Each structure stands twice: as C-alpha cells, then as structure tokens.
Amino acid sequence: MSASASPLTARRREFRNISIEQIVRYRLPPAGMVSILHRASGALLFLALPLVLWLFDLSLMSESSFLRLREFASGWIARLVLLALIWALLHHFAAGVRYLLLDLHVAIERAAAQRSALAVYAVSLPLTLLAAFKLFGVF
Amino acid sequence: MAIGAKRLVVGAHYGLGDWLAQRISAVILGGCLLAFAIVVLSRGDRSYDGWAGMFAPLWVKIVSLLAIAALIYHAWIGMRDIWMDYIKPAGIRLALVVLTALWLAFCAVWSVQILWRV
C-alpha cells in the first residue's frame, strides 16, 4: 500500500473526455463492460424493433405468411441476425435484473458487484449458446 | 433555472419520474418476457393454428399491447438518455430525439394492427 502512495511510482493515467482512439485501448472492468453492453444491446433492440414486428406480423397474418417466416428463418444471414438479437435481449435482461437489484442496494459492495457483473455473462452467454444450437439445428 | 413561477428544469429531482418509469417498465417487461418464454417453451404445438390461437383472446391482445406500450416508453427513455449523453449539438440531438419518437410511434401503431388482425 505504501509503495503505491510513494511519489516515486508513476502517476496513474487519468482519462477525461475519452477520445475514440483511447476507447480502443481503454480496458473496462467487468461492471463497466456489462454497462456499455447494456446500452449497446438496448440500442440494437430499438433499431431492430421494426424487423421484429415484421417477423411477428408474418407469424400471425396467415398460414402462408407463417411458412414464409419459416423460409426466411432458414437463411444463414437471417439466423445470424436473429442470434444477435437474442444475445442482445438476454444480455439486456440479465444486466437489467442486476441494475434493479443494485437499485435495491443488493450487492453494491465492490467485490459483490464485480461478481454480479460476471454473473450477467454466466446467464446470458450460455443461453445465447443454447439459442445458437437451436437456431443452427444442432438439436 | 426556473421557468415561470414554479417549474424547475434542473436540480436533484428533475428526471426522477422518468428514472422511476424506466424501472417500472423494466419490471413489467421482464415479467412479460419470462411468462412468454415459459408459455412458448412449454407448448409442444408448433403449428400456425396453435401460435395464432394464442393471440386470439381479447385479453391476450390487451396484455400484449400493454407490454408493447411499456416497451415503447422504456425504449424512449433509454434512447433519449443515449442521445443526451453522446450528442452535444442541440440541432442534431433534437433531430434524433424527434426521429426516435416517430420511429417508436410508428412501431406502436403497427403493433395494434398486427395484434387485432388475428
């Protein structure tokens, strides 16, 4: 502890108004990564809303449009897009539950918050993998 | 800064209503997502008739529409926060906020049409 406080050690770099080329090198802690991915996944879901509604419309309109949806969902690009949206939804959901718990002062200590950030990945990533298996017909 | 006699547009409590709405809509959406996932995954029926039949009762349409309303409001606050955080020029920010509102209004009206056509 005393070593880090000594004037001989290099001062930690301070980041203020991070620029684009700094973002690439800036390593976020797990909670920070979960946070920015919560934003990114939310924005992605917002942008994809008309696509999701279109698919929902196809699924409900008629028997023939339902079959057209099946055909659409059999393409590789469509499956990758769907998988990205499934990941976004799962991450946004899991991280959202974490934020609601943080609002209730559950696990706000530093170590506990870091564990819960990792728990977000532990929920969202295996479920995304499961969805990928299902989408690409492994089972 | 005060506008008019009473209304404060900055300060500790400005935005609290949206903050709370964001959380309430999140709880509603999370509950709906879990319920929907459980219902869909536990059904063996993968036919069109089974799927469309699920959305036939009036109460399902109404609950679905309320969930979509919560989604629209949730997305509105979230996107507005993103624009406020990253987009500083007032003109561009205003344009993006207006486009966001139109985008979401379009989706809201469309979802009524989708649900009530079944």
What is the strand and helix layout of this fold?
The complex is a heterodimer of chains A (139) and B (118).
Chain A: H1 2-5, H2 20-25, H3 30-47, H4 49-61, H5 63-72, H6 76-103, H7 110-135
Chain B: E1 2-3, E2 7-8, H1 16-42, H2 48-54, H3 58-86, H4 90-117
Antiparallel strand pairs in B: 1-2
Helix pairs in contact in B: 1-3, 3-4
Give a count of the beta strands of chain A, DSSP E runs of length 2 or more: 0
Characterize the main sheet of chain B. Answer: 2 strands, antiparallel
> How would the global form of chain A be characterised?
elongated
Strand-residue proportion of chain A? under 5%
Rounded to the nearest angstrom, the radius of gyration of chain A is: 21 Å
Biggest sheet overview of chain A = none
Give the SSE string of chain B: EEHHHH
**What's the number of helices of chain A?**
7
Cα gyration radius of chain B (Å): 19 Å
As residue ranges, the low-confidence spans of chain B are none
Runs of chain A in which pLDDT lies below 50 for 5 or more consecutive residues are none
In round numbers, the mean pLDDT of chain A is: 89
Describe the structure.
The complex is a heterodimer of chains A (139) and B (118). Chain A is built from seven helices and no strands. In chain A, helix 6 runs antiparallel to helix 7 (110-135). Chain A has helices at 2-5, 20-25, 30-47, 49-61, 63-72, 76-103, 110-135. Helices cover 76% and strands 0% of the residues of chain A. Chain A is mostly helical and 139 residues long. Chain A starts with a helix and ends with a helix. The mean pLDDT of chain A is 89. Chain B is mostly helical. Chain B has a single domain (16-117), classed as Fumarate reductase/succinate dehydrogenase, transmembrane subunit (3 helical TM bundles of succinate and fumarate reductases), CATH 1.20.1300. Chain B has helices at residues 16-42, 48-54, 58-86, 90-117; strands at residues 2-3, 7-8. Classes of the chains: A mainly alpha (139), B mainly alpha (118). The A-B interface holds A 39, 42-43, 45-46, 49-50, 53, 56-57, 59-63, 66-67, 89, 93, 96-97, 99-100, 103 and B 23, 26-27, 30, 33, 48-49, 51-52, 55, 75, 78-79, 82, 100, 103-104, 106-107, 110-111, 114-115, 117-118.
